[in-house]
Amino acid sequence: DTGVSQDPRHKITKRGQNVTFRCDPISEHNRLYWYRQTLGQGPEFLTYFQNEAQLEKSRLLSDRFSAERPKGSFSTLEIQRTEQGDSAMYLCASTLSYSVDYGYTFGSGTRLTVV
Amino acid sequence: AQTVTQSQPEMSVQEAETVTLSCTYDTSENNYYLFWYKQPPSRQMILVIRQEAYKQQNATENRFSVNFQKAAKSFSLKISDSQLGDTAMYFCAFMKQSGANSKLTFGKGITLSVRP
Question: CA separation (Å) from A35 to A38, B63, B108?
Answer without folding.
Answer: 10, 29, 14
